[in-house]
Amino acid sequence: MNDEKSQHATRFLLGNEALARAALEAGIHFVSGYPGTPSSEIIRTIVPYAEKSNVHVEWSVNEKVACEGAAAAAFAGLRSLAAMKNAGLSVALDFLTHLSMTGLGANNGSMVVVVCDDPDGHSSGDETDSRWLSRFSYAPLLEPSSIPEAKQLIRWAFDLSAEFDCHVMLRSYTRLSHASTLIDLEEITQQDVQPQTDSSVSISPYLARPKHAAVLKRLERIRERFEDSSFNTYEGPDRPQCIIICGGSGYLCARDAVDALSVDQSVGILKLATLWPFPKKWVAEHLARSDRFLIAEEVDPYIEIHVKETIVDAGWNGKLIFGKESDHIPAYGEITPDRVSAALSEILDVKYSGGSAEYDRQIAVEADPLIIGRGLAWCPGCPHRATFWALEKAIKQDRRNAYLTGDIGCYTLDVFPGGKSLQNLLHAMGSGAGLAAGLGQLGRFGYKQPVVAVCGDSTFFHGSIPALINAVTNKSNLIQVVLDNRATAMTGFQPHPGTGTNALGQPAPKIEMEDLCRALGCRVTVADPFDIRSSIRTIRHLLKEDTGVRVLIMRRACELVRMREENFKPVTVSVDNEKCKGDECRICTSEFRCPGLVWDDLEGYATIREDICSGCGVCADICPFNAIVNEEVAR
């Protein structure tokens, strides 16, 4: 996309790239967000245009701050966008709820919040449905059903925001954000605006009653606009036997189902792109066409509940609604063509053979010899593998059954088969520190287990600092382990306040986390996870201290970051077959589990996969028989 010749061309783009391109074409001024799959590509796509298009782009410390920055730009009359995943919207929700009560200051600014949901939890701890949060926070909500429509909707969202003096939410989802299609590119423009704020006017959500009344009136005006929106469509016969009502990915699945069952002459499709405020009048007009309706949507019965409200308000009896609450559509997970086809065939009493249990079984049988299973595991040379190895050894030697709390990052892989399964509690970003702070107060009740919290460097800045302050202030007893690998590695190596660069790759002030922790009153130790023996001793010492807040920073760059910077293997690793004890040991492959180490069943000893070995050399330290040998490589 970063090609001046492409201004009026057609390009094959990800959904997120198309959203970003549309924002640029709409004249965006300010872009902020926090990385999180499936949303991360939005900001990454805008970065190459930042300087030449005079767009401010930042990876904010968290989603709340990102929304506050974007709102500030809108207050000054600019166009802004904040991007995040579903979990991040929860972080930003407090501010966004207040923002709905105030509006954007009537300065012709506009603000769009793009939230990318993750149905089926492909890369998330849950599959929360963000559609409810738009209603909860009094924000208009748009949901595209295709990438081209997403590009159109986001441009319309900026116009809506400016017209109605409020932020607008646009919901994407994994199958749209990470799908690709051909997109026509238009000219990148920027609104020529002189930003200014009126210091004589106070923008505040307080005095809640009049503010609440005003926002409800604004939502009714927006609802009237949504009733006439061309993004909401109906296709099919005038008097169908059944109408599929859908939004988002449900629309394409509905189209496939109608085609698969050859029922286009008897089934209509009602597609909704404006989900809140719900366009009740427009929907009611189409509900009059039939008495049977199938609601095709994913995760929660959001559209289904609003359709039922519309039927009740209209005073209709005899309308049959099929969907999640009738068990025709699964109550969780993604919507698929097969799920819609199966439900529709049952409603219409039409034969449908696809997707049966026997069909799925046969597919599994045929695919088994062709598919190689690849479980989730740390990369070769990942410093987290060494850190958890040291933690396990130190905790076993301590013999007090330490309890570990964690949260979201590459280190979450500890709980998967390739990890050590040390972490006992895993929740939201930064909650490892908060949970540990609570457990660290239980000594007065007889709680004797040491408490260890684990977080990454980006998570430390995102959500752990307030919990750490709370722990210090309330004299909790815990060890906070910060895995500092110099990147937001899990989502694409985005910078954070501790990396010394900004979103554009330019030098930026670097926040030294050890200085910050010491300023808070924590006892701080910095260790190298690749120095296994020293790390074990350090952790054992911190466990024995058993009082106050101790911070251990395990500092070693992510191997993928290091290799990109150095393009060099520190050591060449080999196995001395005469020293390898074979099946008597197998610690390297059964416990350490680095993908660069594999077991040779034929020969009966470990071997090194040189094509993926990073040359970190840690495996030589964990071999009890010195069978793994490191040889330094001359630069």
CATH superfamily of the largest domain: Thiamin diphosphate (ThDP)-binding fold, Pyr/PP domains
- What structural class do helix, strand and pairing data support? alpha/beta
Largest sheet: 7 strands, mixed
Average pLDDT across residues? 92
Apparent shape: globular
Quaternary class:
single chain
Q: Provide the β-strand percentage band.
A: 15-25%
Strand order of the largest sheet: 3-2-4-5-7-6-12
Q: Enter the CATH topology name of the largest domain.
A: Rossmann fold
Main CATH class of the largest domain: Alpha Beta
**Low-confidence parts lasting 5 or more residues at pLDDT below 50?**
none
Number of strands: 24
Radius of gyration: 28 Å
Supply the number of structural domains.
Answer: 4
Would you identify the CATH architecture of the largest domain?
A: 3-Layer(aba) Sandwich
